[in-house]
Structures are given as C-alpha cells and as structure tokens.
C-alpha cells in the first residue's frame, strides 16, 4: 500500500478546511502564551495553499510540497510561516519526482521536514514547540515501518502519538518564541503550534483512508 499524489493533494485541502474551522480555537490558545494570531495565520496561509492546488495538482509530490512551503513562507506571519514553510520545503527534497510514497518514504518525508523545523527554530524536545509533536510522529512512523504496518494503520498510530504529544506541551515551560518570555507562566497552556501539527497529522490520516 502506498500514499498517492491525489491523497497528498486531498491532505492539503483537508488542512485548509481544518484551519478554517479551528482558527478561533488556535488563536485562543495563542492568546494565552503568544500574539493571539496563530489561528488567523494558519487559516490565511492554508487558504492560499488551497487556492493554488488546482494548478499544481497534476505535478509530482515533491513539487506540490515545495509549492506549499513557499506559499506558507509568503503568506503566514510570525514564526509559523518560516517554520511550517521549512517543513514542507525540506519534505519536498525527499519526495521529488514521486507520484506515490511507501510508508518508509512517508517516514523520511516527515523526518526530513521535522529536522528542518528543528534546525530553523533551534528547538529541542521539551521546549514547548511544534517539534514536540513532529519528532514523536516521525519516530512513530519509523516504528510502524519496521513493523510492516499499512500506511493507514501507521497514521492511526501516529495520530494517537500526536494527540498525547500535543497534550504533553501543557505541562512544559516554553523555551522558544514569545511564550518563553512568560517563564513559568507558560506552564498550563497547550502550545498552538504543536496543536496545528496534531491537526495536520489527523488530516493526513483521514486522506490516507480515501
């Protein structure tokens, strides 16, 4: 079983939909520890991604992901634009000319993207950032690949990992970004960037079932 180009495109459409629906929720999370604009930024960025999808949907997966990353870089404000943009641009590097992805290739895509975010943001596990979800999700996909699970089963497992990881940011003290200025007061709030990654993983799992 593989994840094909059409499912990747569907994933991005689903991301556009979820960030429209959850914009206020994400902005509410960001209001507690940030600039109160994360939901608005993600909604704006993925709305632009969705606008461009019809013109690139017949391209290879790497092209689609790179275009997505460049669009997010251009349209998402704050730290989210560079970080989510970097994720897709780095993910595109290992999916060039691909029309479909095996589970191992999907793992490499997520891992490369996550490493790009880590390098760009200089974040480490436990810093209360989106990396606290991307990295466990990548590890989960690697383990599922080693166990020869189907992509659908692997992504279901990754969703469970992502949900736990996003929730775990509540007890963390932020060490990066605006939230870090709050010190111990950042404890007790779920990180909005990590929550956005959770939504993206959930949308990928849904697309894989279509």
Attribute tags:
single chain, 210 residues, Serine Threonine Protein Phosphatase 5, Tetratricopeptide repeat, two-stranded antiparallel ribbon
Could you characterize what this model shows?
There is one protein chain. With 210 residues, this protein is mainly α. It has two domains: 1-101, DhaL domain (Serine Threonine Protein Phosphatase 5, Tetratricopeptide repeat, Alpha Horseshoe); 102-170. Helices cover 70% and strands 2% of the residues. It is built from nine helices and two strands. The protein has helices at residues 5-21, 23-33, 38-56, 61-75, 80-93, 103-121, 131-146, 151-168, 192-208, and strands at 3-4, 100-101. A two-stranded antiparallel ribbon has the order 1-2. It starts with a strand and ends with a helix. The mean pLDDT is 94.
State the gist of this model.
The chain is an all-alpha fold and 210 residues long. It has nine helices and two strands.
**What share of residues are in beta strands?**
under 5%
Query: Which spans of ≥5 residues are poorly predicted at pLDDT below 50?
Result: none
Q: Globular, elongated, flat, extended or rod-shaped: what is the shape?
A: globular
**Major sheet summary line:** 2 strands, antiparallel
Rg: 16 Å
Provide the residue-averaged pLDDT: 94
